[in-house]
Write a structure and sequence with these properties.
The protein has 127 residues and is an all-alpha fold. The protein has 5 helices and no strands.
C-alpha cells in the first residue's frame, strides 16, 4: 500500500470542510463580531488542519505527536469560540450543534495521536 498525499487524507478533508463551513457563517456577521469572535474562531479552526499537515512533515514520532496534540488543543479552542458565538447570538443552536456535537471531529484528532502514542510505548492499538 502506497502513501497518500497528506492533502488526500480523510482527516485533512474533514477539517477543511469544517473550516470552510465556519468561514461561510462568519462572513455573514457584522464587522465587530467578525473582528472579535470571528477572527479567533477562524484562526483556531484553521489551526486544526494546519497542525495535522505540519505533523506529517516531521521526522521524529515525538514531534508528530506534539503537533497532533496542538491540533487537538486547537479543536478545543474552536469549541470554546463556537460556544461564545452561540451565547452572543452569532450562531444558532443548530449551527452550534452541527459544529460542536459532531463527535467525528474528536475522533479525527484522537485516533492518529492514540495510534502513534501506542506505537511509541509498544502498547497494542485497538483501532
Amino acid at each position: 500500500m502506497g502513501f497518500k498525499e497528506i492533502e488526500e487524507l480523510r482527516i485533512v478533508k474533514e477539517t477543511e470542510k469544517i473550516a470552510d463551513k465556519i468561514w461561510e457563517v462568519i462572513m455573514e456577521w457584522n464587522y465587530f463580531a467578525k473582528d472579535s469572535v470571528g477572527k479567533q474562531l477562524i484562526k483556531s479552526t484553521n489551526s486544526i488542519g494546519a497542525n495535522i499537515i505540519e505533523s506529517q512533515g516531521r521526522f521524529y514520532p515525538k514531534d508528530v505527536i506534539k503537533f497532533l496534540y496542538i491540533a487537538r488543543g486547537s479543536l478545543k479552542e474552536t469549541k470554546y469560540w463556537l460556544m461564545r458565538a452561540m451565547k452572543r447570538k452569532l450562531l444558532t443552536k443548530d449551527d452550534y450543534k452541527e459544529f460542536v456535537e459532531d463527535q467525528q471531529t474528536n475522533q479525527l484528532t484522537n485516533q492518529p495521536t492514540n495510534k502513534l502514542t501506542n506505537q511509541q510505548t509498544n502498547k497494542p492499538n485497538h483501532d
